[in-house]
Amino acid sequence: MWQGLEEFIQVVEQGSFTNAAKIMDVSTSHISRQINQLEKRLGTILIKRTTRKISLTDAGRQYFISLKNIRQELIEATDHLQGTQQVPKGLIRLTGAGDFVADQVAPILAQFMKKYPEVEIEINFSGRNVNLIEEGFDLAIRFGRMQDSSLIARPLTTRFMSLVATPDYLEQHGIPKVPEDLLHHNCLMAITNRWRFNINDEIKEIKVHGNWRSNHAGAILQACFSDLGIAHLAKDLVQKYIDNKQLVYVLDDYQVSDNATWLVYPRKDLIPHRVRLLIDFLLAHF
């Protein structure tokens, strides 16, 4: 009975099948199929389709108004029910990669569970860009510049990045003076081989090369400690090794400062109460 209703509402609100698909993070063909099946069940055409635009039939316009009213009443009823629940309960699935999630997010999640012991937390440490809706995740922790997305992204904190190497590596291979000098060094890479720098107040990318690549910061650190090359890592991760002289900053004056850490979740009207509580809890702590 409910199949196709949200797709129909989104198509009308967004003005096209393509925009609705982006908002819902599904394919355009999925949207079209759901609405076709909805029209079949209702026995009437809701949307007039042309190559350039869509428009509602009279039946479609009345149906849209009715659905909007029903959806709003459902939201209000759910909010009322969740607001009266004294103890939130149920599973929250979160995905994110890296030591930041393990070392800084996980302890806050543990505090949250102490406060709400009937909530269950599942953390997935996947390095790939997980599709939250299709794979059933409530939240994600992501890093760097956010691309245009149908997801809501809330900034948690700014993570300052750094280039580091051992004194022995720099003594043997020389100290880079400008970012372009990295082309003559072995660079220990994580997610990308394009490192960003602030050069004369302009952000530029340098495509680096190296024989060590890993999506785990600890593995990159070990390679760096072994004098294999220059690593690109978060400052909060390497600062203690700078302090005890195991590592040295490289090209620190050229580092950019826009590497935000984001709390990301799908655009949904009906976010479970327990998830809303966790969102507020994380934002408050950071």
From TrEMBL:
Pfam families with a match to the protein in the record: HTH_1, LysR_substrate
Lineage summary: Bacteria, Pseudomonadati, Pseudomonadota, Gammaproteobacteria, Alteromonadales
GO terms assigned for molecular function: DNA-binding transcription factor activity; sequence-specific DNA binding
Key words, A-Z: DNA-binding, Transcription, Transcription regulation
Origin superkingdom: Bacteria
GO biological process terms held by the UniProt record: DNA-templated transcription
InterPro entries: LysR-type_TF_proteobact-type (IPR058163), LysR_HTH_N (IPR000847), LysR_subst-bd (IPR005119), WH-like_DNA-bd_sf (IPR036388), WH_DNA-bd_sf (IPR036390)
Domain called HTH lysR-type: residue spans: 1-57
Similarity section: Belongs to the LysR transcriptional regulatory family.
Protein name: DNA-binding transcriptional regulator, LysR family
